[in-house]
Amino acid sequence: MEKSDQHFSENLSITSGNETQSHKSARRKYSDPIPVDLLIDIFSRVPKESIARFRCLSKFWEYKFGRPYFTELFLSKSSTRPRLLFTLYHDGKLFFYSAPQPHNPDKDSSLVATRYHMSSHKNVPCVYCTPVCGLTLLQKILEIRRKMICNPITGKFLTLPRVVLKSKTLPHTEETYIARFYFGYDPISKLYKVLCMTSSLCDGPNTHQVLTLDSGKRFWRRIKFAFDFVEDSRVHGQICIDGVLYFGADMKDTSVIVCFDVRSEKFDFINLDKDMMYESYVSGCLTLINYKGKLGIHERIPNYWHNVKELVLWVMEDAGNHKWSKHTYEVPTSIREKSFVGMTATGDIVWSSYSNSNKCVYFYNLERGTFTSVTIQGFEELYGSVGTFIDYVENLKFM
């Protein structure tokens, strides 16, 4: 626990505004002040809306709630109560909604999603990557001008600096370069980093740059190691597990998973299984997931070709030897009209409905074989595609 500054009291007493002097004397005689450490632990468990109000109580609490220690403590408590996060792009604005994530639901139910924030200005980039430790990278596909880091619960947006390529900035060379951005977090150093990888359409060299999100000046740093790649359209999404960022790429006509260690900024590669490569010829049919702390892949089987109740998962068992295990499940109901979301930390496979007016999230527990649906209410009046994310943890960073 970090120590309080000397001009702040170490302990506090709870008093009532209409206490008489005799009552105050009696309270001082028979009660002890509440230690600040205990209050800090209590406050770390309350909703983020309460934290915003408590910051206004005094300079002391504004100081304490703004310290990195409390931010990390709040994050650790939030990690024990993951939430569902919904994003909706409507009328040029980005809306964030959230609801408690059911823990191993055993029967159908309903939840009301509450709105966090919406973008204060129009035409912000839409969400394109899974939230990482409470923050998310916002970008538009095939557009490299505007990249932002956003905290959904605080509504704060951080615009990233332009990527510099040689002596020019990328926006002036869009027609000759393809840029891809990836977002990761290292739990040891507690640092967020953005990886930018550019490839030339004119057979030029690839470049790799990293930006660290800290309190200092933010700038792109060139990584010495480089390799030629083309993004593999069959592999959908990116995911960060225990400080390693994973995404798909094609190297020399071989499909691989790129492994970027956020802390050391080193690259490694995992080959896809041959059966996976042979069967998965549809764009976006392989989705990266966190399978109980391991890298996993959900294989989307074309509905017109296979059983629409079949669930296929691949799990990385030995990265050094590129060894995958395949798991096939028979889901008790059709998943034809459902969008795959991911796998929760408790072992539930999650889908969501495409409809906004009757939004549902579906949970299939691999161990119990149960399939339940949760109806989500709260944003029926808005039009647009709803993005669904699981295991979201609230973070006070950038508050």
UniProtKB/TrEMBL annotation:
Sequence ranges assigned to domain F-box in this UniProt record: 34-68
Domain F-box associated beta-propeller type span(s) in chain numbering: 83-392
Pfam families membership: F-box, FBA_3
Region Disordered, residue ranges: 1-28
Top-level division of the source organism's lineage: Eukaryota
Feature: compositional bias, Polar residues: 9-20
NCBIfam families hit by this protein: F_box_assoc_1
UniProt xrefs under PANTHER family: BNAA05G37150D PROTEIN-RELATED (PTHR31111), F-BOX DOMAIN-CONTAINING PROTEIN (PTHR31111:SF65)
Protein name: Uncharacterized protein
Organism: Microthlaspi erraticum
